[in-house]
Amino acid sequence: MSTERPIEIEHLPLRLHQDFDGLITPVTQADPDHVETNFCSRALAAFTIHRVTGCSLQDAADSLVDGGNDGGIDAVYYSANSNTLWCVQSKFTTDGKSEPGLHEVTRFSTGLDALLRGDFQELRGNPAWVAKLPYIEHLMNGGTLSVRAALVYSGIRLVSDDRRRLFESLKTRHSPDDEYFRFEAFNLTTVHDWIVGAAENRTVDEVALCIRKPGWLRKPHEVVYGLIPLADLVALCSIHGERIVASNIRRYKGSTEVNEEIASTIRDDPSSFLYLNNGLTAYCDRLEVRGTDRGNAEQKNIKAFGFSIVNGAQTLGTLSKTCTPGPAPEGLAFIRVISMERCDDDRAFAERITRCTNTQNEILARDYVALDPEQERIANQLSPSSITYHYKISDDAIPQDAFNFSILESTTAAACMLQGNSAPEFVTRILSNRKSLWDTEIPSGETISRYSRVFASSLSARSLWRAVQAQRIVLDKFREFARAEPARKAFFENGRWQILNLIFFRIKPESGDATSLSADEIAGFSDAALTVSEEVWSACRSLGHVSVAQGGGYTFPRHLRSVFCDPADCRRIRGEVLRNPNHQNAALPENESQIPNAEV
Asked: pLDDT tens-digit profile of 537-552?
């Protein structure tokens, strides 16, 4: 397991204090560190109640019952909307990795067992429980209540099987054939998703649509399809903005040949829009058809909850741009809205719909990469630090500043972080065929795709952002060097990725807990740009790729682009550089501990 402290743990205490300062009083202890941990643990239990039930922060804070004789239960809350009693145990640790101890979880399961049996004897010794018990006893005697147990903790590890088995045993004893009792575990990843609103950001909570000339299929997946006025689509864009297409494979791409054709039809021949446009596809968590329209063949008014248009971002973007300001033209578009409610794996089916319906504009490899949960994970982990990762294509210019970076930058930085014998292949692909780094197909004889090598699940968002910052520093230096030495311009332009890879070998950007590079780190990468580039230049001279011409200047037997696009040449250059004494203090990657000759 990685020793790196997860970036998510940095954001959690900030959010807990933001929500619960003044609502939760920490238990006073002599050690200040324990006071903070105690507050965060209690606030984490309350935050979980708030998220799973939708109750107010005050009600969530009032749900706390932790203390002596609490049965291992830190918070309890009855949700009238779902007729569910939630019992939560929370554990906050600062390392961001570990799960609750087995003895703590065992106490939780034992307390739940007593509660489910109606044995409240221990709980009567806890004042907070005493105030709640009469109502809870009444609820549990009613016969229709559901009980949900939640174990929430601030570690990224999944809860172990020995802990899960405790709750599986409870379900077997108390709820073998129904959903009366259910257990859920929420780790740091889930809690962080709550903080950044990952699920909510992908969809619009609720939309109301009037579908003309509708069709309605109920099985195997519910779908309503038909015609929708262009004016209604413009209104959707105006109200919800980009959230309406948040699950799309990409954002509105602006002025493209296809989009100009769409705009021309909207302006000049809107009545023909229906016949010339492929229409839109949307999915939602759940569909409701208005009762009076169930038998109406002319129109159906529907409500769609958790709604997102997954094919049609270009149509919507062009409509909005063409019709704003001003009235929308009289015209219709085809739309279908698919409900995910009956899907066994709604996310997989949603991604399949998204992939298969996006065919009108050219789909690039990086468009499909935008669907990968790893890209969303990186964006979500960085967003609480006010850093925006733009991993979907958009017509908006993406600033290269301290708060924004793109998938183009992240791909080159991540590829240059790879070390070992495979490093030359990846750095040469940056120069010769960059889009191949987004290839999700597994090459013959391999067990993993190139894309999965570059964006491995072990790659943390913090490390990637630090690498991007370092990459910017180094590339800026190379541009300075090229202006100062025009004779070596081709070297800096074509050798930059090989040099950056070797700089990352020497100064690992993943080393360091801070999200942003320090002044010393910035200076270190800046200095390395000069020293390592000179080492690579010397290696090129030693290997005959560069010669000093009579009268000064340089000659190149082969263009340097062909040299730095060739993995074999880059492997020899890498071997020359790694024999340099400056590299002896750095730990060599696997298969590079011995460098017997230039062909490592």
From this structure: 999 999 999 988 777 7
